[in-house]
Every structure is written in C-alpha cells, then in structure tokens.
UniProtKB/TrEMBL annotation:
One of its GO terms (molecular function) is glycerate kinase activity. The keyword Calcium does not apply. Keywords: Kinase, Transferase. It comes from the Bacteria. GO terms for biological process: organic acid phosphorylation. Belongs to the glycerate kinase type-1 family. This is Glycerate kinase.
Length: 384
C-alpha cells in the first residue's frame, strides 16, 4: 500500500515536518510494510521557506532588517536552485515578532520586508516568491516601497513616517530612485487572500482587529488606505483600489502591484507545482493531508483542499487529520476531501492539546487506518 502524506503545520503545536513524521509513525504502528512518501507542504504562510528549502535542496540566507516597530532583527529567507528567493513577510514584518501590547497597525511598518527583497537582489535573485501571511502591518506596503527606494512626501515636501497613520499625509510619490533591479525581476505574491484594499471586505476591516486595531482605528486605517490608493491611481496609473488581493497583508498586495509589478498566485498551488507533488500521486493508493483547524475558509487556498484537488485527478481517496473542526468544514467534501478526522478523542484543554499534539496525530493515524482497513475488507467481501 502506497500512501502520500502532504500535511500542513498545526499552528502552535508542530511544524509540517513534525506533523508528517507523526503521521508516518502512526502508519507504522498500524502496518510496518506500508510505503510512505512524505511531502511537507505550506500555503505561502508560516513554514513556506523551510518547506521549499528542504524539498528543493536550497539554502538559508539571513539579513538584518527592521521589525514592524523599527527594531533590528535577523530574518531568514531561502534561496532555491536557479537563484530563486523565497521570502516569508512574517519573518520581517510579522505578528510573531511583537508582543500583544506592541500591536498597533497605526505605527507598524513593512520596511523590513523591503529590506529582505533588497538582500535577495544582492544575492543575485531575479525571481522572488513572497509569502504574505501573518503580517502585523496595515501600511499598504508603503514601508516596503520606502526600503526599495520609493519616496512618499507630504505637503511640505517631507518624507512621511512609518505606519498606517502616516498614509493620509501622502501628497506625492516619487519612484525615480527605486532600485533598478526591481524592473528586471519577477516577484510573485503567494497568498490565498482576494480582499480589496478598502471597504468592509478590505484590509483594515477584515484583518485589522488581529493586528490590534480598534473600531475607531479601523475606520481611520481604511480611510488612509483609500487616500493612498487614490494617489497611486492618479500619479502611477495603477488602480490598486479595484484589484483583487490588493488588501493582502494590510495592503502590501497593493504596494507590490504598484511598485513591483507583482503577480498574485495561490500559495498552496504554487508550492504543489514547485514540489512536483503530482509525480508522487500517480501510483499512490491513499493521501493523508490536514491542518490545525479545518473550516469554511479551508476551501480558499488552504493546504488540504489544494492537495485534495490534485489527488482527485487520479481518483485517490483523501483523509484530512485536523486539530479542530470549525463551522463550514463540510464544504471541503465538495473539493476533494473524503473524510475529516479530529485528533482530539475526548474533551481536552487547548494547552493539553497543543502540548500533546504530535502523539495525538500518531494515535489518530493508527486508529484511522484500522478503520480504513475494516472498510476495505467489507467492500472486498461485498464484491466477492
């Protein structure tokens, strides 16, 4: 029996590598002679760099950059064969870099993300994949653009400061000093976000609260992004206000569209293609995927559905192991998932579940495979 394991990380519990190893151990408990192919996978967010560097034999690079509140931090990114850079925005501008009391999208900046792009260019990379999940910012990518050499000046001709609160001051945008290598590079956004820049479905209203925005600051941030979008449209002839995905990562999508001529791709689909997952599915018997929480959002570019869609090309059954099942999870059945199995067998505290997640994945895998075997035997008897 040949089984492909393509499972995402369980946030706060284990990485995609640890999850895949746990599933394999569970399979061995069930039957030691099973043939296993492990494909750690991500969707453009946390774990993307580690996943691609490991799978494609790349290397890690490190750069000293500014974090969202201007402190210097050492950020990691990857360089793949062919001088292809893979960057996680969160490494420089992400929520994990801040404590709860430091969250403030009025002042946080994407400047460090721009510095990572410059470092990748310095290392000879002309193709850059940028995963934009987990940002702590809402500055429309202005900080990133400033790091690339773009100037944003107010009425008095002074350069604006950092953060979403500063966007309302923008009067002129000068791109004459942007790093010339940007024009010769291909920058791809890895994201499952299609939100517009502004409005009730925009960056500020949908994602602002998790970054520390209050109801009042959300309105201000949205208004400031609207002003910024209008200036970009008038002076650069790029209508970021009408572009799907411009609201990704606090509007960094808009900045990448406007200043880097970036294109946006589904993170999980791009990773699946880069890692040639289909080559492993062609002669498989079963696919095991999963993530920390499966719900209605999983169909919007998350790992389990991305993997399942590829598996269905070969008529393969797909089982999703998950940490929790949320509202709307049943929608995934229409997108290739055949069964969802919660790894929590009885009521437990979140602390217990996170601490023991790996062993829970192991035991759940074994239990699931024994049930699978029973089903297979039953079907065989009926056919005979």
């Amino acid at each position: 029996m040949k089984i492909v394991i393509a499972i995402d990380s369980f946030k706060g519990c284990c990485t995609t590598f640890e999850a895949a190893d746990a599933v394999e151990r569970g399979l061995r408990y069930y039957r030691d002679d099973v043939q296993v192919t492990k494909i750690p996978i991500a969707d453009g967010g946390e774990g993307t760099v580690d996943t691609l560097v490991s799978a494609l034999e790349g290397e890690f690079k490190y750069a000293n950059v500014l974090d969202p509140i201007g402190r210097e931090v050492k950020a990691k990114y990857g360089v793949l064969p062919g001088n292809i850079a893979v960057i996680e925005m969160a490494a420089a501008s992400g929520l994990p870099l801040l404590s709860n009391y430091e969250l403030n999208p009025l002042t946080t900046t994407t400047y460090g993300t721009g510095q990572l792009i410059i470092d990748a260019l310095d290392n000879g990379c002309k193709t850059i994949y940028l995963g934009v999940g987990g940002s702590a910012t809402n500055d429309g990518g202005v900080g990133m653009a400033q790091a690339l050499g773009v100037s944003f000046k107010d009425k008095s001709g002074q350069e604006i400061g950092y953060g979403g609160v500063e966007l309302s001051r923008i009067e002129t945008i000068d791109t004459s000093l942007i790093d010339s290598r940007i024009e010769k590079s291909n920058i791809s956004i890895l994201s499952d976000v299609k939100n517009p820049l502004c409005g009730k479905n925009g960056a500020s209203y949908v994602y602002g609260p998790q970054k520390g925005a209050t109801s009042k600051t959300i309105e201000l941030l949205d208004s400031n992004l609207e002003h910024y979008g209008q200036i970009v449209k008038e002076q650069l002839s790029v209508d970021v206000l009408s572009m799907a995905g411009a609201g990704a990562a606090g509007g960094v999508g808009a900045g990448l569209f406007a200043f880097c001529k970036a294109e946006s791709f589904s993170g999980v689909n791009k990773l699946i293609d880069l890692m040639h997952i289909e080559d492993y599915l062609k002669d498989a018997d079963l696919v095991i995927t999963g993530e920390g929480r499966i719900d209605s959002q999983t169909i919007n570019g998350k790992v389990p559905v991305g993997v399942a869609k590829k598996a269905k090309k070969y008529d393969l059954p797909v089982i999703a192991l998950v940490g929790s099942i949320g509202e709307g999870a049943e929608k995934t059945y229409e997108h290739g998932i055949d069964a969802i199995v919660d790894i929590i067998p009885s009521p437990q505290t979140l602390e217990y579940s996170l601490k023991n997640g790996i062993s829970l994945i192991e035991s759940t895998t074994e239990r699931t495979m024994r049930l699978w075997n029973t089903s297979e035997k039953s079907c065989h008897k009926k056919l005979v």
